[in-house]
Specification:
347 residues, four-stranded mixed sheet, six-stranded mixed sheet, alpha/beta, single chain
Length: 347
């Protein structure tokens, strides 16, 4: 077990606590493997009736994955990056298919890998501190960890908007979109966890009793606009729609898109288009693993991490630099299935 993860049983509840406060609890390989081990141990343990996933000290919930490692690996043979994705996606899938009730407390930053940890859980608690996003296109990656599944199932074209722009949602917006099941104030979370320990078979009742009315979900006021302007699965057509609209919001949104990787925006649109028709979450993870294995070794990811995380100049030089220059052939290469002996499996 790793110090970055605290795993313990408290009576009938299994506790998984992320414990990398200096990295905003971003996931590394050992943490993903630790979660998998804990879930496996508790699967057949009748004494453990429910599971709580949260973060320990400091701000949280989880800011994503070990991006620096992924980029360093991608710049060489990609082996370490693929090992991380393989374990992380197995963790995502195990949470998605787990028989016992799991509740995730998304109190604070919930981005990238944190989204992949929270969304498969049966109960997902947002608070006034929740900042939820899939910002991967800004570093030349794509909304993985099941993003193609979850975002494609949001109302209208909100998922496409979130995938391309990396827009941050607050807790109220997460509740309104079904990304969270409950909205609690952060000062009620300790009470919620204590009561779950007392009645682990009635998590819904506990959370219902402590839930408070959420503020208005601001994104819903934009829904019609988002549905209209992000209607296409062709990136160039979204650019054209935003340009033709010419309003302040459309202009700002187009400016945001122009800072993102054209290549991984196109990957994201295809991922959501195909994700909407996936027969199972395992099929989704298999596809995302193949896409991730390819993307992590491409120029835009290594350059995006350099610009945003390493040098922090926030001036990535994307290649190709425009949507028009990202050919269908390149996207087809990125989506090519892996050989059977390299493909992802649920375990």
């Amino acid at each position: 077990m790793t110090d970055d993860l605290i795993v313990e049983s408290e009576g009938p509840v299994g506790r998984i606590r992320l414990n990398r406060p200096k990295a905003l609890h971003a996931l590394n390989l050992a943490m993903c493997e630790g979660v998998l081990e804990a879930l496996e141990a508790w699967r057949g343990d009748a004494a453990v009736e429910a599971i709580v996933v949260d973060h320990a000290e400091g701000r949280g919930f989880c800011a994503g994955g070990d991006i620096r490692m992924l980029a360093a690996s991608g710049a060489t043979d990609g082996v370490e990056a693929r090992a991380f994705f393989h374990a992380e996606y197995r963790m995502n899938h195990r949470l998605f298919t787990y028989a016992k009730s799991i509740v995730a407390f998304m109190d604070g930053i919930t981005m990238g890998g944190g989204v992949g940890l929270a969304l498969p859980c049966r109960f997902r608690v947002a608070t006034e501190n929740t900042k939820f996003a899939m910002p991967e296109t800004g570093i030349g990656l794509f909304p993985d960890v099941g993003g193609g599944w979850y975002l494609s199932r949001l109302p209208g074209r909100i998922g496409q908007y979130l995938a391309l722009t990396g827009h941050r949602l607050d807790g109220a917006e997460c509740l309104a979109l079904g990304l969270a099941t409950h909205f609690l104030t952060s000062d009620a979370l300790d009470t919620a966890k204590a009561r779950i320990g007392e009645t682990p078979q009635d998590i819904a009742g506990v959370l219902d009793a402590l839930a408070v009315p959420a503020p208005d979900a601001k994104i819903l006021a934009r829904k019609d606009q988002i549905d209209r302007l992000f209607a296409s699965d062709v990136l160039e057509e979204i650019y054209a729609a935003l340009e033709a609209d010419g309003g302040e919001w459309a202009t700002q949104t187009l400016a945001t898109l122009k800072t993102k990787s054209p290549q991984t925006m196109k990957v994201s649109l295809r991922l959501l288009h195909e994700g909407a028709a996936m027969a199972s979450f395992a099929d989704e993870m298999r596809q995302e693993y193949a896409v991730g294995a390819h993307v992590v070794q491409r120029h835009d990811f290594i350059e995006g991490v350099r610009a945003v995380i390493v040098d922090k100049d926030n001036a990535p030089r994307w290649d190709p630099a425009t949507p028009e220059d990202v050919t269908d052939h390149v996207i087809d290469q990125i989506f090519a299935p892996l050989p059977e002996d390299e493909a992802w499996t649920p375990g």
